[in-house]
Design a protein that fits this description.
Layout (H helix, E strand, L loop, with lengths): L3 H9 L1 H4 L18 H10 L6 H7 L7 E2 L1 H7 L12 H15 L7 E2 H10 L17 H13 L12 H25 L15
Antiparallel strand pairs: 1-2
């Protein structure tokens, strides 16, 4: 298992190595009454300047030119642990609400043209559906942008990582490492006894 110091370096390196969300600096200051899209871009992407096309592309996770229901849910943070309690009925309701606003041809998805028309021509914006700012990054990104950049920097030492968020983050790393080791050990065994039905096992 990796040492805690190696894990620390891995996390610290995310500030320059994380590629899924593009480069980002400090969170820009936005008006507390700003619309949800503006708050989301500031909170999740540390971006203050964006247009409809860039917002759409950034949240077209599979880059196929349209937002399917799963991408709408992900944009609103419905796959984040903080929203694990949200019922399927509420999730379906949110998807229907967004599609009802933007999906002009009613094909069950939102195209780039439909989205830019909604923003630029109709002059509207994505609504706040009460699910928070829309956490949709992976664990490393969420830890970096919502905790590391706020409380730590390149001068942080291993012994300084004592916040509950730090402890939980590295605990997850340790659990992942233990599981990887367990799988490696299983793969090295010619026969995995646990996979043999009990009635065929030798006593």
């Amino acid at each position: 298992m990796r040492s805690a110091s190696i894990l620390f370096l891995a996390v610290a390196g995310t500030a320059v190595a994380h590629g899924d969300h593009g480069s980002h600096g400090q969170k820009p200051i936005v008006d507390e009454h700003a619309n949800w899209m503006t708050m989301h871009m500031a909170e999740e992407h540390h971006a203050a300047d964006f247009d409809a096309a860039s917002f759409f592309i950034l949240h077209d996770y599979d880059a196929d030119g349209s937002w399917e229901p799963e991408e709408i849910l992900r944009t609103y943070g419905l796959f984040d642990e903080s929203n694990a309690h949200v019922s399927q009925d509420r999730r379906d309701e949110i998807v229907r609400e967004i599609l009802g606003l933007i999906d002009i041809n009613e094909d069950g998805s939102v195209s780039r043209d439909e989205f830019t028309h909604f923003i630029n021509i109709e002059g509207k914006t994505l609504p706040d559906v009460g699910m928070g700012p829309g956490h949709h990054g992976d664990d490393e990104y969420e830890y970096e942008i919502h905790h590391w950049e706020k409380y730590h920097d390149e001068n942080t030492k291993l012994e300084d990582l004592t916040h509950p968020e730090d402890i939980e983050h590295f605990k997850k790393h340790e659990q992942m490492e233990l599981e990887e080791e367990r799988l490696e050990q299983l793969q090295q065994r010619p026969i995995i006894e646990e996979n043999i039905p009990a009635k065929f096992r030798r006593d």
